[in-house]
């Protein structure tokens, strides 16, 4: 993955609680996103993070990209892994948003992360996700995003989902477009990379996109 692609994750499970913050300030809206029901489709289950997920966190801590744009610990230790899990619980408790583990439905083994985090504008949440390297290209991210998006847009307080993706992140672009997100434009020099800034595509999903999307494409509409 290209150098800057690591920062696309800032739309997601960002370093917003750390001193090297390069993303937006957290927004707290307690109660707007409730504890979800069981979200499961096919091979994918979305659930709360657990201390049993340390092997997943350990694998992703070795990823060349993900730890630089998230609070995934690098280097990994059991203590740091547990702190990662507790941070995700804390985001829900504080009203910052919801960070779930993607897991294999059959075994419950965590294979990645997906989240919704409140934006400044009421009713708008940012989405983010990653899949551990050993589990990629199995539709985990697409199915997870379909499930979580559909549920989020059914909530009375959520009307719009956003994803910020760097133009070179072909995998992530493919994921959001296959779920029905619309590209709205290029935000020039949006991401603060410390010494430079990077452009990102802004994608969004609203209820009308979900209603009108073609179910033949394995998208959100046929995840009944
Ligand atoms: C991007 C990422 C989340 C994709 O996860 P994944 O579970 O492998 O994605 P899926 O298997 O659901 O793939 C969905 C589609 O994208 C395609 N795709 C996935 N990765 C791709 C890549 N690197 N290049 C091109 N296409 C890719 C798949 O082939 C599939 O296409 P299809 O609709 O034609 O079948 C994963 O590569 C990752 O975690 N990357 C690092 C973190 C990241 O970039 N997160 C997103 C930040 S915006």
Task: Give the arrangement of secondary structure elements.
Layout: E1 39-41, E2 44-47, H1 54-61, H2 66-69, H3 78-94, E3 97-104, E4 110-118, E5 124-131, H4 140-153, E6 160-165, H5 170-179, E7 182-192, E8 197-205, H6 207-212
Parallel strand pairs: 5-6
Antiparallel strand pairs: 1-2, 2-3, 3-4, 4-5, 6-8, 7-8
Helix pairs in contact: 4-5
For the record, give the distance between the C-alpha atoms at the N and C termini, rounded to a whole number: 34 Å
Number of helices, counting only DSSP H or I runs of 4 residues or more: 6
Principal-axis shape: globular
Bound ligands, named by name, code or SMILES: coenzyme A
Q: What's the CATH first level?
A: Alpha Beta
Q: How would you characterize the overall build of this protein?
A:
26% of the residues lie in helices and 26% in strands. It has one domain (3-15, 35-222): Gcn5-related N-acetyltransferase (GNAT) (Aminopeptidase, 3-Layer(aba) Sandwich), CATH 3.40.630.30. It is built from six helices and eight strands, in the order E-E-H-H-H-E-E-E-H-E-H-E-E-H. The chain has an eight-stranded mixed sheet with strand order 1-2-3-4-5-6-8-7, sandwiched between helices. The protein is of the alpha+beta class. The site of coenzyme A (COA) has 26 residues, from strand 5, helix 4 and helix 5.
Outline of this structure?
Mean pLDDT is 87; it is low at 1-8, 16-22 and 218-222. The protein has 6 helices and 8 strands. It is of the alpha+beta class.
Task: State the main characteristics.
single chain, 224 residues, alpha+beta, Aminopeptidase, eight-stranded mixed sheet, 8 strands, disordered N terminus, binds coenzyme A
């Amino acid at each position: 993955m290209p150098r800057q692609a690591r920062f696309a994750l800032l739309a997601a499970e960002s370093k917003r609680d750390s001193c090297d913050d390069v993303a937006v300030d957290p927004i707290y809206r307690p109660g707007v996103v409730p504890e979800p029901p069981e979200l499961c489709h096919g091979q994918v289950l979305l659930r709360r993070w657990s201390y049993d997920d340390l092997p997943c966190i350990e694998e992703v801590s070795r990823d060349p990209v993900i730890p630089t744009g998230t609070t995934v610990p690098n280097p990994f230790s059991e203590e740091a892994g547990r702190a990662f899990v507790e941070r995700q619980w804390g985001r829900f408790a504080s009203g910052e948003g919801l960070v779930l583990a993607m897991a294999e439905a059959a075994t419950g083994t965590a294979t990645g992360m997906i989240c919704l985090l409140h934006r400044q504008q009421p009713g708008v949440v940012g989405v983010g996700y990653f899949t551990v390297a050993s589990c990629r290209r199995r539709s985990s991210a697409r199915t997870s995003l379909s499930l979580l998006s559909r549920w989020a847009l059914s909530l009375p307080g959520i009307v719009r989902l956003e994803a910020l993706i760097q133009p070179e992140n072909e995998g992530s672009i493919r994921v959001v477009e296959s779920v029905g997100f619309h590209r709205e434009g290029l935000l020039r020099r949006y991401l603060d990379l410390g010494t430079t800034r990077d452009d990102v595509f802004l994608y969004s999903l609203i209820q009308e996109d979900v209603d009108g999307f073609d179910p033949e494409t394995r998208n959100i509409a046929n995840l009944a």
